[in-house]
Design brief:
Helix content: 10-25%
Low-confidence stretches: 1-24
Shape: elongated
Strand content: 25-35%
Largest sheet: 5 strands, antiparallel
Mean pLDDT: 75
Number of helices: 3
């Protein structure tokens, strides 16, 4: 893939954009979730939508959304997973801030 095609893919597709930019954090929020849930056990990640993931581990769960910032040229500069709910016990309803 040429550099031009790669840059075009990063701008055009949110899923591809997850791997673009210097600050990309990967395809899922597993590491961030493990930290927030204070859990060293295996973390389960569930796709709730194209840009939203549920994270479960150690009897707790939280919701994350994928946010990308752009540089002054409008190119994706950095992407990260942002916690969008309180950490709750498994089995509780996950309510994201965007749906309240």
């Amino acid at each position: 893939m040429t550099v031009g095609r790669l840059l075009g893919a990063c701008v055009m597709s949110p899923l591809v954009a997850a791997g673009c930019g210097a600050g990309a954090t990967g395809k899922d929020p597993r590491a961030r979730g493990a930290f927030d849930l204070q859990c060293s056990d295996p973390i389960e990640v569930v796709a709730l939508s194209e840009t939203t993931r549920g994270v479960r581990g150690c009897g707790r769960q939280a919701t994350y959304f994928h946010r990308c910032s752009k540089d002054t040229l409008g190119m994706i500069a950095q992407c990260t997973w942002v916690q969008d709910s309180a950490v709750t016990p498994n089995g509780s309803t996950i309510v994201s801030a965007g749906s309240r």
